[in-house]
Amino acid sequence: MDELPVVWENRVRFEETDMQGVVFYGNYVTFQDEASSAYFRAIDYSYGAIAEAGWDIHVVNVDLDYRGQATFEDELVHGFRVATIGESSMTSEYAAWRPADDELLAEGTVTHVAVDGETGDPTRVPDEFREAVIDFQERPPEQA
Amino acid sequence: MDELPVVWENRVRFEETDMQGVVFYGNYVTFQDEASSAYFRAIDYSYGAIAEAGWDIHVVNVDLDYRGQATFEDELVHGFRVATIGESSMTSEYAAWRPADDELLAEGTVTHVAVDGETGDPTRVPDEFREAVIDFQERPPEQA
Amino acid sequence: MDELPVVWENRVRFEETDMQGVVFYGNYVTFQDEASSAYFRAIDYSYGAIAEAGWDIHVVNVDLDYRGQATFEDELVHGFRVATIGESSMTSEYAAWRPADDELLAEGTVTHVAVDGETGDPTRVPDEFREAVIDFQERPPEQA
Amino acid sequence: MDELPVVWENRVRFEETDMQGVVFYGNYVTFQDEASSAYFRAIDYSYGAIAEAGWDIHVVNVDLDYRGQATFEDELVHGFRVATIGESSMTSEYAAWRPADDELLAEGTVTHVAVDGETGDPTRVPDEFREAVIDFQERPPEQA
């Protein structure tokens, strides 16, 4: 997780806890989604810019390993980087941890597909987006 | 609550509980919203029919009293009736309870405003909707 | 809303939007709950301190007026102040707005009851808490 | 998905949609969690029985492929079966689809670990649970 740029931070909400006293595991998908959006803002190609450029993004896979537990008011940080980009799909690495005790909470991948904003059909990830990713990341994504 | 027609039922989800071991109180707003949608289906004027008829519905007030607590796997029922209809707004009564021990969990009101589907401006609640409400309810709504 | 101390800020999550393209109204209850917790941290009597002191807090009423709409990535601020404190209950004022265009989104009240951490029975709001509220707020709460 | 026993059904809530007009993909984790709980009830070894028998369940991995999209008021069904059981972990297959047009929406796996209710340490999945799974499923789980 040390290699992932930190792109998003949050404090655990009361609503996010469950009767086991910890963050309900499904909420890490929401956290990963916000980390993804924050990454897009960080590379200066936000969700709004995606819409303006006439494409959209769909999630086709989420794969998360749960490593630890967080509770109400814990301060969490979230890392995210694009690991591979193919013609129309890209897979990113994600991790959530708690700096207070350096505990890893969840890590895994999310795979997005670029679709045409009108038809919804898969479309090539635009070169401007690829360049923004390369400019931002220390390690460039692999070509899939 | 005995006077309210039962329009929706659910079993409490694990995700809906919080670290106090009970349903997070904000979830009753979602329950009330589903009771509202179920009421619209029950009077045969569903959300889809609203859109087709060119109007839409916005919530302008929610007022809920919390009377009891429910936990994971509890089976709940929800009552709903339109209490008053004015020109463009209507206020409905809502209650949630648990039949297993007849405990009242939450009760209150929600106020909707009819808006034009295009402009978003308040518009008269259509007569067809008013008639559907009167046909369904034992007690007709008051005119506001 | 100008009179309410700002205690919490957030950026609207994609998950918080609904098919009307705006924040689902039920989420403002979660926002109000986080504003409440942030207020408790601000007066240096956080939820953890409440538990340590042997009491707990239950919400008995929420009353929210919806004034405007927010969408994905909007930056919101939330004001909160305790308006009245009685023996075991207290009612607080809440408002959410968007500084970018100074639009008010939601405002209303939440009523909490102090309960004994063991028995769950209503208990007197501790004097330490009352003093912390008075120290923090420009306008002291009314006695109910 | 035809081989998975249907254990849970739901109607999509308005709150579960997002600004793309479809169910936010993170909600399928909640659906899978409810399918899991429904499976436990179906084999007559519910979450309550797990707690009584002194163990608890933690999710250690979720892996979901998104195949289609659902929207407000769609009626969905959810299949679930335990695919493999090891000493303390078990992996289950999950799928969600919409019978109205027979469209597959999501499918994947969830991996649970049995932990001691007191210590939280991994513990052997009890034989009573294993037998309940074998009695319920047409195809018995593999031994991992």
From TrEMBL, chains A, B, C, D:
Molecular function in Gene Ontology: hydrolase activity
Name of the top EC class for this enzyme: hydrolase
Classification via SUPFAM superfamilies: Thioesterase/thiol ester dehydrase-isomerase (SSF54637)
Pfam families on file: 4HBT_2
UniProtKB keywords: Hydrolase
Keyword Hydrolase: yes
Entry keyword annotation includes Hydrolase: yes
EC number: 3.1.2.-
Family from the record: Belongs to the 4-hydroxybenzoyl-CoA thioesterase family.
Protein name, UniProt field: Acyl-CoA thioesterase
Source organism per UniProt: Halorientalis brevis
Lineage, broadest ranks: Archaea, Methanobacteriati, Methanobacteriota, Stenosarchaea group, Halobacteria
